[in-house]
Design brief:
The protein has 250 residues and is an alpha/beta fold. The chain is built from nine helices and seven strands. The radius of gyration is 17 Å and the shape is globular. The two termini are 26 Å apart. It binds NADP nicotinamide-adenine-dinucleotide phosphate.
Length: 250
C-alpha cells in the first residue's frame, strides 16, 4: 500500500528513543522528510524542551528551515514514574500536565492553522491505555493522558473540515527504555513492591491479552498509518494499540 508520505514534512517529538525513534525511522522509510525533537537528540534532531512556553514557535521555525514546512505532527514525548497517589506532589501533577497537555496544545496551536490553510495535515497524539482506563501506577500520568485524548478530540472537531485529521493512539505496555531501561518502571515497581524485576514484568504481561509487551516499531506502524493518506477518513479517534489491555469496544 502506498501511504503517500513521500516528501511530506513530518515532526516527531520524543524522538531520541523508544516509540519516537521508531516512528522517525518508519516515516523516513516512507520517503518523508523528518525532524525529530527531544531535549537530548542525536546529531540530526532538534534540541528542545517541549515544556518551554515558546516551544511551539521555535518548533515551527525549525521545521520551516530544516524540512521545508510542517505537514505531519506526532506529539509523542512523554514520561512517567512509579508513584502512589499519596507520593505524588503538586510539582509531579504540574510536570505531567505541562508535558502531556500544554506541550501538545502549544504544538498543535502552532501547527494546525498552517496545515488548514494548505488544506492537508495530520496530527497524532500519543496517549496511553492509562488514559482510557486510569492506572494507579501514576495517577497524574493517567489523568493527563486522559486529558490529552480530550484535547485531541477538540482539535479533531475543529480542523477536520479543513483537511487536518487529528487522532490519538493509546498504547499498552511497550518494550522501551521507559519500562525496561535501567531505573525504568520495571526497576521502580520492583523496589516499591519488594518484587524481582522479572516478577514485575510477568505481572504486567499478564494484564495484556496478547501476552507480551509491544515493540516500539509496532506502535510506530499504527502512528505512521494515521499520518498517511490511507487514513483519509479517520478523525477524532483514540486507537487502542495495547494488545487488548483495555477491555472496551469503542
Ligand atoms: N512505554 C510504554 O509502555 C508506553 C505505554 C503507553 C504510552 N506510552 C507513551 O509513548 C510515548 C513515548 O514513550 P516511550 O516508551 O518511547 O518512552 P521513552 O523511550 O522514555 O522516550 C520518551 C521520549 O520523550 C522525550 N522527552 C521527555 N520529556 C521531554 C521534554 N520535556 N521535551 C522534549 N522531549 C522530551 C525523551 O527525550 P529526551 O530525554 O531526550 O528529552 C524521549 O525521546 C510517551 O508519551 C509515553 O507516555 C508509552
Amino acid at each position: 500500500m502506498d501511504l503517500h508520505l513521500q516528501g511530506r514534512a513530518c515532526v516527531v517529538t520524543g524522538a531520541s528513543g523508544g516509540i519516537g525513534a521508531a516512528t522517525v525511522a518508519a516515516l523516513q522509510q516512507e520517503g518523508a522528510r523528518v525532524l525529530g525533537v527531544s531535549r537530548n537528540p542525536g546529531p540530526d534532531g532538534l534540541a528542545l524542551d517541549l515544556t518551554d512556553a515558546d516551544a511551539g514557535d521555535r518548533l515551527l521555525a525549525a521545521a520551516r528551515d530544516r524540512i521545508g514546512g510542517l505537514d505531519v505532527l506526532v506529539n509523542n514525548a512523554g514520561t512517567t514514574s512509579f508513584r502512589s497517589l499519596e507520593e505524588l506532589d503538586e510539582d509531579d501533577w504540574r510536570g505531567q500536565w505541562e508535558l502531556h497537555v500544554m506541550a501538545p496544545l502549544r504544538l498543535m496551536k502552532a501547527a494546525a492553522p498552517g496545515m488548514a490553510e494548505r488544506g492537508w495535515g495530520r496530527i497524532v497524539n500519543v496517549s496511553s491505555s492509562a488514559g482510557k482506563r486510569p492506572s494507579l501506577t501514576n495517577a497524574a500520568y493517567a489523568v493527563t493522558k486522559a486529558a490529552l485524548l480530550s484535547l485531541s478530540r477538540v482539535f479533531a472537531d475543529t480542523y477536520a473540515e479543513h483537511g487536518v485529521l487529528v487522532n490519538a493512539v493509546a498504547p499498552g505496555p511497550v518494550a522501551s527504555e521507559l519500562w525496561l531501561g535501567p531505573g525504568g518502571l520495571a526497576d521502580q515497581a520492583a523496589a516499591a513492591r519488594g518484587q524481582s524485576r522479572d516478577e514485575v514484568l510477568a505481572d504486567q504481561t499478564a494484564k495484556v491479552p496478547l501476552g507480551r509487551f509491544a515493540q516500539p516499531e509496532e506502535i510506530a506502524a499504527v502512528i505512521v498509518f494515521l499520518c498517511s493518506e490511507a487514513a483519509s477518513t479517520v478523525a477524532g479517534a483514540a486507537w487502542s494499540v495495547d494488545g487488548g489491555t483495555v477491555p472496551g469496544i469503542i
